[in-house]
Structure formats: structure tokens, C-alpha cells
TrEMBL record:
Source species, domain of life: Eukaryota
Protein's cellular compartments: Cell membrane
Keyword Glycoprotein part of the UniProt annotation: yes
Protein's organism: Dicentrarchus labrax
Name listed for the protein in its UniProt record: Ig-like domain-containing protein
Amino acid sequence: MELLRDTRRMTGISCVVCLLTLSYIHTLTEADTEASCVVLKSCILPCSFQGGAEVVVHWFQGTGKTPVHSYYHNQDQLARQDQRFRGRTSLFKDQISRGNASLQLTGVEVQDRGRYNCHTSTISGNKDSFINLKVDAPVAEVDIQKVENRITCSSEGIYPEPELTWSTSPPSSVTFKNTTTVRETEQQLYNISGSLILSDSGTDVAYSCNISTRRNKRRATLRHPPPIIASSTDTTIPCSVSDTSLMVFSLVWRFNHSQIILNQAGANVSHSVSEEWRQQVKGVSESGGLMLQDLSWKQEGMYTCELSNPEETYVTNTFLRIEKVSRTGVTGIIVAVVVGVIVVVLLTGLILYCKSKRRGTRPEMVL
Ligand SMILES: *[C@@H]1O[C@H](CO)[C@@H](O)[C@H](O)[C@H]1NC(C)=O
Ligand SMILES: *[C@@H]1O[C@H](CO)[C@@H](O)[C@H](O)[C@H]1NC(C)=O
Ligand SMILES: *[C@@H]1O[C@H](CO)[C@@H](O)[C@H](O)[C@H]1NC(C)=O
Ligand SMILES: *[C@@H]1O[C@H](CO)[C@@H](O)[C@H](O)[C@H]1NC(C)=O
Ligand SMILES: *[C@@H]1O[C@H](CO)[C@@H](O)[C@H](O)[C@H]1NC(C)=O
Ligand SMILES: *[C@@H]1O[C@H](CO)[C@@H](O)[C@H](O)[C@H]1NC(C)=O
């Protein structure tokens, strides 16, 4: 009996503790407003209060005692401001009297993340609000390239820590030797880089690298179709992307991994061709293919097509071999030179022959 009552009492106590904890957690979560910012951009930390006379506003980060921003006597009071926030904070002055104490923060850094306290006071009372600031640095660009039998994929300035995964199309059961390196920068951002060693680079497989973080993900795909052999002075190098919705975004064609041939910023936007390629570029096909003309051996090399939209980048490296064009060209020149030389020799011979013949015949005619 005694034991039973004891157990009951204990259950009762733990229930009260449990309820207290729950309500405490509840008030905590209820009090915190969530705000989300992107690194280097600006954002607003919301805070409102019952407006009134003699407004005092203090913003603090975490448990810090140094204000992020202060306002009283109808003006900003920044003498004691935390130096990390110098020149990056402002209030909406015209709205303070109406109860808006929201803080605008510019040039957001990863270090700005965390809990903020907005303390306001007027003659009618005080108020403390808590704002939880989440900071993200989304994956911006993913660079993918192949050197010999190694494909590398990388991206920089990401927060929180990103993940990198590989896939192939068509799906391959082969497990590749892959390594991923993540480095943290001084700004607490992450640089990520992964590489894949191919055992057989002969087949036409598309390799995709997927980099993801809390806010977004981006995928970069690399393809190496078989070389194209140009047997006339005109040819079209396809961009080899089946998904034409990608054409709504940007297209770049490069030569030998460096020289830019042309750029197109969107589907209905006209492309711009670089000066050196004006003569060779005839246009861009609907699916992004590069239409070339007036080809000579100088245009033999690697053509890279890069199509991107906000989620994906497709890189296709196609080698263009100039075959008959260059050969007929060279043979043509040789034939022309040979024919020219023969003609000159024959003409000279003929003239000399005629002259000597005339010299020899003249006296006869006189006779
Ligand atoms: C305060 O004013 C700014 C600027 O007009 C506005 O963007 C923000 O939503 C306002 N915040 C509140 C809590 O009223
Ligand atoms: C990459 O390596 C990890 C372990 O190191 C492995 O689990 C994964 O399957 C590999 N990915 C591919 C595509 O081979
Ligand atoms: C991260 O990438 C940036 C941009 O390329 C570079 O300047 C920086 O040195 C890199 N940081 C680390 C720690 O690798
Ligand atoms: C990329 O990786 C993320 C997380 O690992 C996953 O959720 C997503 O489905 C992947 N996307 C693709 C296209 O593979
Ligand atoms: C591009 O133009 C075509 C017709 O000229 C139109 O149907 C299409 O909606 C346009 N696309 C964009 C993205 O503006
Ligand atoms: C382009 O690359 C190919 C193959 O590497 C090379 O033969 C050619 O000379 C390069 N052309 C130019 C203009 O650099």
C-alpha cells in the first residue's frame, strides 16, 4: 500500500515537472520568430511593440551585452555598438513611433546567425522579443571538368556544409574510386570538391555531380560524345541535351576549354558571337547546336557547350576533326602551285623558243 502511494506521488511529481518543462518549451518556441537571410544580402529582423512616447530600442545578439543597435532620445545611439555590426544596421525611423522596431541588416555573414533579442521600452512599459536568424549561402555555381581519366567537380562559398554525390546516365553499377574534400574558409563558408577516377573513359556515359545544402542543390553533368568529323566546310555540333526546357536559360560555347565562341542568355534572346568567330558561326540551332561554316584546319579542336538553368548545368565536350576540308585545301594549294610552276616554265620555254626561232627565221624572210 505504502509503496503504491509512493509510486503514485512520484508519477504525480514527474508529471508536474513534465508539464512545466512543456509549457516552458512552449513559451520559448512561441516567443521566437524565425528569420532567414542569404550571405552578402540584406534582410529584416522583425520586431513590433505597442508604440508610444520616449521610445528606447536595444537589439542584442545571443547573450551578448554589447548592443547590435540602440535607439533612444529619438536617434540612433551607436557609440557602444558591437564593431562586427558597424555600418550594417538600421531601423525604419519613420515607423518607430508606430511600433515598428524591425532591424535591417546588410552584408549578412555566417557569424550573424543565431538568436537576437529586441528590447523595447516606452512610458507605458517594456517588451522583449526573440528572433532566431538562420543564415544560408546557397550553391551558386558548380564547375565540372575532365582531365585525362579524372573528373573533378567543385563549388565554393556554401553554408551550411554541403554534400556531394555522383551518378551516371545510363545508370552504372560500377563503383568508382571517388574522393570528396570539404574546406572551411575564414568566413565560415565551405568549399567542396570531389573527384572521380574513370577506369574506362571510352563509352559515352554522362557523369553527374550533385552538390546540395539546406537551401538548394545544383547538379552538373559532363558528357564526352564521340568526335565529329567534318568532311565539308559546313557542320553543326549538337549540344546533346534532350531536355530542351534548359534552353530557356543560358548557353555558352567554348573552344579548346578557353576561348568563348558565343553566349546566349535565354531562349528568346539573341546570341552574341565573339570577334574571332564571326566568320565561322552561322547560327545556333533550336536545341543549342553550333552551326559552323568556312571551316579550315584552324577550327580543329574541342568544342564545349554549357547549358545552365538555376538547378542544373550540362557540359558537353565534342572534339571536331577537320578531315576532307583540310586535305582538299592542302592538296588544292599543292596542285595550284605545281600547275602554276609548270605553266610558268612552259610559257618561258615557249617565249624563248619563239624568240630564238624568230631570230633564226628573220634573215630568211629578208632573203
Ligand atoms: C517595419 O517597416 C518595414 C519597412 O517599411 C517593413 O518592411 C516591416 O515589415 C515592418 N515591420 C513590422 C513588424 O511592422
Ligand atoms: C563514392 O564513394 C563512397 C564511399 O567512399 C561510396 O559509398 C559511393 O558509392 C561512391 N560513389 C560512386 C558513384 O561510386
Ligand atoms: C575557397 O574558394 C575560394 C574561391 O575560389 C578561394 O579564394 C579560397 O581560398 C578557398 N578557401 C579554401 C579554404 O579552400
Ligand atoms: C542530390 O542530392 C540530394 C541530397 O543528397 C538529394 O536529395 C537529391 O535527390 C539529389 N538530386 C539528384 C538530382 O540526384
Ligand atoms: C519565346 O518565343 C516564343 C514564340 O516566339 C514563345 O512562344 C515563347 O513563350 C517565348 N519564350 C519565352 C521564355 O519568352
Ligand atoms: C585546339 O586543340 C587541338 C587539340 O588539342 C589542337 O590541335 C589545336 O591546335 C588547338 N587549337 C588552337 C587554336 O589552340
